[in-house]
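User: Can you help me understand a structure? I only have the sequence.
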Amino acid sequence: MGTSRDPSAEAEADRLLREVERTLEAVRRDVSEVIRHPHPTPGRLHHLHRELRRLRTALSVGREMFPKRDGAKLLALDRRVRRLARLVGGVRDRDVLLELLGSVGTKARPGLEAEMLERHRTRLRDDARTGRELLRAFARSETEAGLLDEVAGTLGRAARTARIPHLGRLLVAHHARGRERVAEAHSKARRRPSMKRLHRLRIRVRQLRQVADLARAVASAPDRTFDAPLHRLQQQLGRLHDLDVLLASLDPALSATGWFRALKDERKRRRREARRALRSSSALSGRP
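Assistant: Let's start by predicting it. Here is the structure, written out as tokens:
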């Protein structure tokens, strides 16, 4: 691994590679299921989406450990992984919206209201089916092109020739930058909790948690004080965002229906909860 060999640094790098191998194996299993079955379950897609995000987090750290040539190769591979993750996420989003519409089915009055609700659910089901077909085709294409094999091979070759830094210090730096991004997004969302700002905060929180999970798997874990508050905040912001997206996609002419009003009432409740969470988590923004 280069001319300067530090046993502790090499051990950390080895743990990172093993973690990537574990994540790659999980992604392989899920991708195989997506290819094998025309209609993968929401649970399978959720698991695949989570593992793809973990893989991308590990690749972002790995790029900084290796020479520029290897880092550039990993960046190109990460772009392909990102496209796969976005396709999975798009299908999952439609599944979530269908779940939300199903939760207000009893609020639709028989007749026209129920028909309009079912019409919208049918359109979403068609979109989800089309998304699954596109995902299946892309997953098969990337599998045949050897995407995951290329990721594993590139990391393995890079690790054998690189001068390995202390991964622990690298992860601490990533975690610190993630905390700064969360603090900035949190401060903006507290001042004006718009849909865009709350969604950005949710993304920053998720990214920070992914780095923290990777650090716990391969090196000295960062402070876990904020784990529970971050997780709760991420969940609350996630469901609020789902409601925002669904309501924004609906025709305003539906606003008089009982099921539309039920969705708006649920969004109001979720927004109140999110605002309380933002106030109670002031430590995330560095405020006293």
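Now, to help you interpret it: Residues 49 and 88 are 6 Å apart (CA to CA). Residues 68-103 form the longest helix (36 residues). Let me know which part you'd like to focus on.
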